[in-house]
Specification:
The chain has 1 helix and 27 strands. It is mainly β and about 300 residues long. Strands 1-14-15-18-25-20-23-2 form an 8-stranded mixed beta sheet, with no helix packed on it. The two termini are about 35 Å apart.
Length: about 300
Amino acid sequence: MENTMTMTTQADLRNEAVNRSRTVEQIIAGQPTSDGAGVKLTRVLTQPLQRRLDPFLMLDAFGTDNPQDYIGGFPHHPHRGFETATYMIAGPMRHRDSAGHEGLLQNGGVQWMTAGRGVIHSELPEQEAGRMEGFQLWLNLAAKDKMRAPWYRDIQSDEIPELTTANGVKVRVIAGRSHGVAGAMQREVTEPIYLDLELPPGAEFTQALPPSHNGFIYVYRGALQIAGMHVPLQRMAILKNDADSDGVVVKASVATRALLIAGKPLGEPIAQYGPFVMNTNEEIFQTVQDFRSGRFATSE
């Protein structure tokens, strides 16, 4: 029966030990923008931060009760050279792509797509009213993997492992590991950690992080304290890289939800042109030519 229910673990006193927490290097307010067919969103991780937060390329946050802000969705558009992880808090989204994949992403679910050598896909809401809320994260691929075959997986809400710490913090482990619990996704090269944290007022949470990982926390409900720094609602805290730090300790000022995301940097050149991310301008030129010539993935 475990595969039909959310896997929940009660974390006892074996909380991950963090001897020295990372501090906050910078607090970022995202940029309001629109994408797709007029979907209003906030671009939290923008292009100027890509090298600092390598291997992450972008984080978009969207959330509205007004259907005019999301009803157009994201019609067919191409990608090459990276992965997307779309996490829906509320609202169903239909995915279709040129490699023959199709799925319905529902409340609490994640869509993980490897664009690889090229895919054309659409993401369209399957509702005309009510709240649509979620996040899309772009995760870079190493140069050796950029031209791999496209891949896709729908991870429904009940397939995402969860744990609850002794002081009542609920953790959804989307990728990586937390407190001994393996997440729904694992990636060997970039080793991403992707956690959705739900903290009661006054609760503290610890997460071990390799010193080499770049990391950040985005608060989408409430507010947090990190090493004495206040992180307010709808702000991203970039965690300072410190060889002496072995993780991060966060404390909720009020009832709070936040994303904790970290990964191993690739340390490779980044060349981006819209939905294409490669290592050199020459590869970008070739990508544009391949797309215009119809060489991206098809269902055949």
